[in-house]
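Hi Q.,

Before the meeting this afternoon, I wanted you to have the pyridoxal-5'-phosphate prediction in hand. No need to reply - just skim if you have a minute. The sequence and ligand are here:
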Amino acid sequence: MTTATEPAAHAPAWVRDIAPYVPGKPIEELARELDLDPAGIVKLASNENPRGPSPKALAAIGSAAAELTRYPDGNGYALRVALAARLGVPPEAIVLGNGSNDVLEMVTQAFLTPGDEAVYAQHAFAVYPLATHARGAKGVEVPAKRYGHDLPAMRAAITPRTRVLFVANPNNPTGTWIPGAEVEAFVAAVPREVAVVLDEAYDEYLAPADRSRAIGWIGRYPNLVVCRTFSKAYGLAALRVGYGVMDPALADLLNRVRQPFNVNSLAQAAAIAALGDTAYAEESARINREGMRQLDAGLATLRVESIPSHGNFVLVRVGDASRVYDVLLREGVIVRPVAGYGLPEWLRVTVGLPAENERFLAALALALGR
Ligand SMILES: Cc1ncc(COP(=O)(O)O)c(C=O)c1O
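Predicted structure with the ligand bound:
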């Protein structure tokens, strides 16, 4: 409760009205709350990679730790050069972020002023409305079509006030995915004065033939920002490192609002090593495919509806999700409620290692009495 004399009362209404982001419950928190052994808790709540990080990334962190007294390279030179070589773009086309979230924030900071509009889909990633509202801009939420993005409707939602448009592909939390040809036709149809953010945080989990080629389009679309992350298939969520690829003129603009040392030196070193360890990312995708099959089979046995997912998570319809969530917690299994996404009957479950998936399925069977 704030009173008129407190500083918070004088913050812009659009900031005070923001509903804070609710992260997945940390293992230590559940252990404290229910007096459980943290080692016995399974966390399938934040779409993290269930394997440990790449040993190459760990070794790189060890070496970089000797330089902790120094500020990181504010330009992220070596990481941008490594990414540029991998992606076939000039280093000037890459903006590094403290997680790809940071790049999403930079786009809104660079383009949105109060009264401007950003378009995103119903049930799309929570950070789009958050970052939009933090600028005093208006979020235009376009109804989903079969839980996924309705691109023609999103195109139709563009007005003269629209400055930014977000597309998550695959989308979190629904796991829906749109083939590249459809996405490109959509990008081509968006007016050039609207920045299109194509958020590809889960691209590495797609079958190789389905992986996005959108980075190859940036020469044609000076308003396109393609976001990727090291948090998922590359297993470095705690370090916070992601990037956006875009026309160098657009990158120059984003760099003006970027914090000078936004990506720390351990993250930069680990990301370079992880990028070089392609076997790790491919193995992560393989483990994910197997885990997804295991979950799909288990859910079918339990007669639980789910949405076919292209990410490292799956949305399951459980009815009274808050009750089922609580039962799962008591069984030491943390998943993610998604009522805040307008999906009160659903829970989102990250694909874990086989034993973790089994723990989830057993706890779900208990919760549903099946
Ligand atoms: C669709 C989507 N985009 C972006 C992110 C942000 O990831 P990070 O900031 O860790 O790179 C996430 C994380 O869950 C996500 O699901």
